[in-house]
Write a structure and sequence with these properties.
The structure is a homodimer of 430-residue chains. By secondary structure, chain A is an alpha/beta fold. Chain A has two domains: 215 residues, Aldehyde Dehydrogenase, Chain A, domain 1 (3-Layer(aba) Sandwich), CATH 3.40.605.10; 142 residues, Aldehyde Dehydrogenase, Chain A, domain 2. Chain A has 14 helices and 16 strands. A seven-stranded parallel β-sheet of chain A has the order 10-9-11-8-7-12-13. A four-stranded parallel β-sheet of chain A has the order 5-4-3-6, sandwiched between helices. In chain A, strands 1-2-16 form a three-stranded antiparallel β-sheet, with no helix packed on it. Strand 13 of chain A pairs parallel with strand 16 of chain B, so a sheet runs across the interface.
Chain lengths: 430, 430
């Protein structure tokens, strides 16, 4: 049985999910061919026009958001979810300002990545270009609608958005304003499209739309990302887990270790760069202080036997604790016998997002940087710095934990690819 | 029902395909951690040792190959297939020489792709690293065993090879010699492994071994590549089709157009960079000469009505001809009304591998380079130059037609990724 869904406003018959995605993708790809030809200044101007349109549409957007909030309250959404969904004039101003900030970022497109001339006179260059049509699948936060669209457009990509049902009215209003801004500078509104239905089969159709959608970026909880990774036939730029470790080496400065670990865990416990496992070297002399500082700040510690022996407030860890992303004021802690054991623990349990060492020993630091196989490896710094803004990349579309194409914070460059341009004078191959 | 297969020599019970792949992958990943720490000189020395071992093992390898040839003749393999399978002293010397040539290529690992210092003093660098464990799934040519292993090892990757059943004895002998070369310089032989069974379920287990195999490179015919792309959960670096176009613009030099198109089609008809469709501008005055030159060289032309009108020997094209990779002395040919129509035809039918224009008009050339969405776009050159060696990259692992990670000829750089290294002095995030 094929699921059918409500028709688009301008079509007569209901479309299957596959036909709907194909239609949206064809419109988006046609719009992208226009974006691909724009100059840096034209793309920046389009984003400023979109930001202005978002500000002009404040009344419409907040009214649409109020309908989402009312429906969410009726459905009994949690207070936390309602808070993520809620817009107010300040939050909406922040969304528009963020679009202006993306406009001010440097254009990645057109950069010549390499150039050479062959002995036969062929001139080769590799030139950075947009990827094409990017699909974004996300959950409740309506700001993603404008943030993701801005990053895609800045890098010359069209975007097909599929947001959460709770935010449908808000997303529609934001998308309409953004598209109106593009139209005001003569660009096709199909450069930013929103899937017009909440039918979950459309997500499946997006994930298998190879050749129509060039890359999918899932933004949301673990179950969303896992489903996308399992079902996708389209390349996915995703991060699943942030099981981040901090290893306090024997030669760590005691006060630095205390401050860095406290910040890595407790500054914000809900972000993917938050430390989830602390590894204390058996030769590090101030482990009790580090542990006490975390517990005193309100963190629950779950440790192995040697960690429990350091402080009676440390509870026993279960084996699954070493593979758990708490995203909360909870931390697993193990005592390890030297850097080799720390590297082994990290190799076995890290999600390859961000792992850090605290040490004053340069050789050990270099070894850790070299041997830990994670997107981001840090020495003497809080893992909470794992963020595109902190890395100077501007806004980020996400933090990738895969190994190919882009790793760590993914910003404009991660939304581009390249092509080879070859200029000849009639050369034929012998 | 779970398929079981013959046990490895050193295991007691038969392993399921998944368990076999997991065991091979774990051994390969452990070996890769050793490779990741090697210097440029150490990797080069290891490859020279492998080349020497291949030369020493000439007798064993040719004897194994003779068994494959005999079995193939008994099975009734085609003469073309037997020729691809057959090794002789000269071919084996070529395989060993190719390994030495890869040893001489520059090491891509360790290159600093970008470096910056943040206002808070954090020092960031993006450093090129190996991908990890690469799976190669290929068909009958035994030289792929050594070629692919050499490229993977040069870039610090371990490799898991799954070759065709026709070449199993040859592949085993080549792998054994290569591994012996590695062992002779103290490296783990598991850096190069060959799947020890021809059970097709093992291919399926490789394709879904996410987290164990980091990238799969299929090398072979279209049905192999299509199966890999359809079933893989592991990232795939693949090229499916090479439907390459050459557009002869109104302002093309007539003799250059004749020579370039003749070479693009007829130099070797069976390679992926061979021209499969010729687009002749209606304003180009020498179309008859170009067509006659191809037909006189033995090429069958299938054209639209206007192409047929240019030469009575042009047969009518069916609609599927525009989407066919002939890999033979057959060419589809259409007459188009200007560059816009040529770009539209290419957008509709190209496989995004290599497309070329012949023109003396610089503005049209730039437009073609910019707007054609293919991995390689050429001006005034034969599409048969689409090759890693011709691009100065050294040996290639394949030509990628996807959009992410690597496009066009993929050599050592395409077998690497990067990590972020962050050096601090105790910074915590405000």
């Amino acid at each position: 049985m094929t699921t059918t869904i409500a028709p688009l406003a301008d079509t007569a018959a209901p479309l299957s999910p596959e036909a709907l995605v194909e239609q949206l993708a064809r419109d988006g790809r046609a719009a992208q061919r226009v974006l691909a030809r724009l100059s840096d200044a034209e793309k920046a101007a389009a984003l400023r026009a979109a930001a202005a349109a978002l500000r002009r549409a404040e009344g419409d957007i907040l009214a649409a958001n109020a309908r989402d909030i009312a429906a969410g309250e009726e459905k009994g959404l949690s207070a936390a979810l309602l808070d993520r969904l809620r817009l107010d004039p300040a939050r909406l101003a922040g969304i528009a300002d963020a679009v202006d900030q993306v406009a001010a970022l440097p254009d990645p497109v057109g950069e010549v990545l390499s150039a050479s001339e062959r002995p036969n006179g062929l001139k080769l260059s590799r030139v950075r270009i947009p990827i094409g049509l990017i699909g974004i699948i996300y959950e409740s936060r309506p700001n993603v609608t404008a943030d993701a669209a801005a990053l895609c457009l800045r890098s010359g990509n069209a975007v097909l958005l599929r947001g959460g049902s709770e935010a449908l009215n808000s997303n529609r209003a934001i998308r309409a304003a953004f598209a109106e801004g593009l139209e005001s500078v003569g660009l096709p509104p199909a450069a930013i499209q929103l899937v017009p239905t909440q039918d979950r089969a459309v997500v499946g159709a997006m994930l298998t739309a190879a050749g129509l959608i060039d890359m999918i970026v899932p933004r949301g909880g673990k179950s969303l990302v896992a489903r996308v990774q399992a079902d996708a036939r389209v390349p996915v730029l995703a991060h699943l887990d942030g099981i981040c470790h901090t290893y306090v080496h024997a030669a760590a400065d005691a006060e630095m270790a205390r401050q860095v670990t406290l910040n890595a865990k407790m500054r914000r416990t809900g972000i993917c760069g938050a430390m989830e496992t602390l590894l204390l070297d058996t030769q590090f002399p101030a482990s009790e202080t580090v542990i006490a500082s975390l517990i005193d700040a309100g963190c629950e510690l779950r440790g192995d036997a040697r960690a429990q022996a350091l402080d009676p407030r440390v509870r026993p860890a279960a084996s699954e604790d070493w593979d758990t992303e708490y995203l909360d004021a909870v931390l697993s802690v193990a005592v390890v016998d030297g850097v080799e054991a720390a590297l082994e623990h990290i190799a076995a349990h890290s999600s390859h997002h961000t792992d850090a060492i605290v040490t004053d020993d340069a050789e050990t630091a270099d070894r850790f940087l070299s041997e830990v196989d994670s997107a981001i490896v840090m020495v003497n710094a809080s893992s909470q710095f794992a963020d595109g803004g902190e890395f100077g990349l501007g806004a980020e579309i996400g933090i990738a934990t895969g190994r190919l194409h882009a790793r760590g914070p993914v910003a404009l460059e991660g939304l581009t690819t390249y092509k080879w341009q070859v200029r000849g004078a009639g050369q034929t191959r012998p």
